[in-house]
Amino acid sequence: SWVTSDLHLGHTNIVGPKVSRWKNGYCNFESVEEMDNTIIDNINKFVDRDDELFILGDFSYRGKLTPKHYRDRINCDRVYLVYGNHDKEIRKKWHHLFNWCKDYFEFNYYDTKIVMCHYAFGVWNKSHHGSINLFGHSHGNYKNVNGRQMDVGVDTNNFCPYNLDEIVKELQKINVHVVDHHNDRVD
């Protein structure tokens, strides 16, 4: 399984200084086409047709091309979308392009609970038992990472998806940090 977030396909303001109207906070691509091609080519390079790909929001945004155009270019058959703040058009019209779309998703990945949302959490279900929170939205700028938590946005991994097995292996090395109503970790 693979996971990524914040593709922002078609989003001109995130592309780079030659295209963006923003003063900062963008990537360093020359064009929206270069950015889109890089992200989609990287997905197709790593993710096989029969793999699972979880996208934690902001799939595409106000581009000249439809979300269908981008989804059709991704070779993976099982693509799941956890909605982000820029997925309004997908909510209304394009949700059928994905195996499912949800605001929040949690599941057991072998013996580890994974909690996925577009946004980072201060605490999450079973965090005191070692569960993992995967999120996007902050483009690597969220500094309050709390234990077994990770920003999986494309711009935190050289515009490539993350392998879920590798994430779990790395995050399980981090000691559980209890910040909710429990005083002690209880397995």
Report on the structure:
The protein is an alpha/beta fold. It has 4 helices and 9 strands, in the order βαβαβαββββββα. It has helices at residues 32-46, 67-73, 88-94, 164-171; strands spanning 2-4, 52-55, 78-82, 100-102, 104-109, 112-117, 132-135, 149-151, 162-163. A 5-stranded mixed β-sheet has the order 4-3-2-1-9. The protein has a 4-stranded mixed β-sheet with strand order 5-6-7-8, with helices on one face. The longest helix has 15 residues, at 32-46. The chain is globular, with a radius of gyration of 17 Å.
List keywords for this structure.
single chain; 187 residues; alpha/beta; 4-stranded mixed β-sheet; 4 helices; 9 strands; globular
Would you summarize the structure shown here?
By secondary structure, the chain is an alpha/beta fold.
Helix content: 10-25%
Structural class designation: alpha/beta
Measure the end-to-end span: 26 Å
Q: Helix and strand succession?
A: EHEHEHEEEEEEH
What topology, given as strand order, has the largest sheet? 4-3-2-1-9
List the helices and strands and how they pair.
Layout: E1 2-4, H1 32-46, E2 52-55, H2 67-73, E3 78-82, H3 88-94, E4 100-102, E5 104-109, E6 112-117, E7 132-135, E8 149-151, E9 162-163, H4 164-171
Parallel strand pairs: 1-2, 2-3, 3-4, 6-7, 7-8
Antiparallel strand pairs: 1-9, 5-6
